[in-house]
């Protein structure tokens, strides 16, 4: 497995070795030893796994978890094809306002690690795009926030041949500047502290409510 640091501080792309034969393909999208070498810290305790199915054109995000409690994620595409996007929304971060994108599919089986405090979005490039997530905290509706994926100041790389299909929540979401003005964004310093506590296995887990996202 190969690891590559992305343009957003703390975000990492992982590419496993795929083994193919006449039966199909086998790969390991997550390897703890590789993750810990690339990240310089243990993998977070997994509190929840999520599974979403989207048709072509669906854009989910930009979603993030308020900090505290914050949430780290490990994401890969089990079926279909998606453009996964990580956005640095942590005030004070050296890469604040930047994004990076990774093409995810079940052939290469790349995975993306999103550290605490960053925003996450993806574009479904085919019908029946299946995204799988491991998250460090359970879904609590009151902690989940969203920014507009169509914010012109961010200029996310939504393909020109895609007509974005957004949820009502994402359609109404604030721009990065608006959210910053309202004090809704996590800070870089606080996000790092929360992530360090996760790696150390410290901190109480919030009670899950509502549906998964």
UniProtKB/TrEMBL annotation:
Tell me where on the tree of life, at the top rank, the source sits: Bacteria
Nucleus recorded as keyword:
no
Spell out the Gene3D superfamilies in the cross-references. Answer: Jelly Rolls (2.60.120.10)
UniProt entry keywords in alphabetical sequence? Isomerase
In its keyword annotation, does this UniProt entry include Isomerase?
A: yes
Alphabetized SUPFAM superfamilies for the sequence? RmlC-like cupins
Question: What protein family does this chain belong to?
Answer: Belongs to the dTDP-4-dehydrorhamnose 3,5-epimerase family.
Return the PANTHER family for the record. DTDP-6-DEOXY-D-GLUCOSE-3,5 EPIMERASE (PTHR21047), THYMIDINE DIPHOSPHO-4-KETO-RHAMNOSE 3,5-EPIMERASE (PTHR21047:SF2)
- Per its record, how is this protein called by name? dTDP-4-dehydrorhamnose 3,5-epimerase family protein
Please report the organism this UniProt entry assigns to the protein: Streptomyces anulatus (Streptomyces chrysomallus)
Name the lineage: Bacteria, Bacillati, Actinomycetota, Actinomycetes, Kitasatosporales
């Amino acid at each position: 497995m190969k690891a590559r640091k992305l343009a957003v501080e703390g975000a990492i792309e992982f590419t496993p070795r795929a083994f193919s034969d006449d039966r199909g393909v086998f790969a390991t999208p997550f390897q703890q030893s590789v993750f810990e070498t690339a990240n310089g810290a243990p993998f977070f305790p997994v509190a929840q796994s999520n599974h979403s199915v989207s048709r072509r054109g669906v854009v989910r995000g930009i979603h993030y978890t308020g900090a505290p409690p914050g949430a780290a994620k490990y994401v890969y595409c089990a079926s279909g094809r998606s453009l996964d996007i990580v956005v640095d929304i942590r005030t004070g971060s050296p890469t604040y306002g930047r994004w990076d994108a990774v093409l995810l599919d079940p052939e290469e089986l790349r995975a993306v690690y999103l550290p605490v405090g960053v925003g996450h979005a993806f574009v479904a490039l085919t019908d029946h795009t299946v995204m799988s997530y491991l998250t460090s905290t359970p879904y609590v509706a009151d902690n989940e926030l969203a920014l507009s994926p169509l914010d012109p100041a961010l200029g996310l790389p939504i393909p020109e041949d895609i007509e974005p299909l957004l949820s009502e929540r994402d359609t109404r979401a604030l721009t990065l500047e608006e959210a910053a003005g309202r004090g809704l964004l996590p800070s870089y310093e606080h996000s790092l502290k929360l992530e360090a506590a996760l790696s150390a296995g410290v901190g109480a887990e919030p009670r899950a409510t509502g549906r998964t996202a």
